[in-house]
Amino acid sequence: MARPSLHDTGPLVLAIIDGRPGGWCDGIFDAPDDIKEHAIKMAGRGQEYKAGRSWVKCDDSTPLGATAALFHFAPGRTSLIQAPDDVRLAFSPLEVGLSRSEPEAN
Predict the structure, then answer these.
(1) For the range 49-56, what are the long-range contacts, defined as Cβ-Cβ under 8 Å and sequence gap of 24 or more?
(2) What is the mean pLDDT of residues 8-35?
(3) How many Å apart are CA 89 and CA 85, to the nearest integer?
(4) What is the pTM assigned to this prediction?
(5) pLDDT tens for residues 82-102?
């Protein structure tokens, strides 16, 4: 049986925001001051952020909402490094490619 950790934490979100590291865990944002202040402000307002095809409400109590708050600082210049699978799915880039209805040219 695995030994329990001394300090159990919830899910962790890590991102590179405009070239700088930032993250969130258990309701706490950790990033350079300007990014951190912006994320806290967006979470407090409940600002919405377009992630993929849906809108996500910023908050500081869920990994999905916290990721939206971090991404809000620099849309298009933020990369998700670590997050729960549902957050990765919501923030993954939309896939584009050939249509299945059109046969490929040989």
Answers:
(1) 49/75, 51/90, 51/91, 52/90, 52/91, 52/92, 52/93, 52/94, 53/94, 54/90, 56/90
(2) 94
(3) 6
(4) 0.82
(5) 999 999 999 987 765 555 555
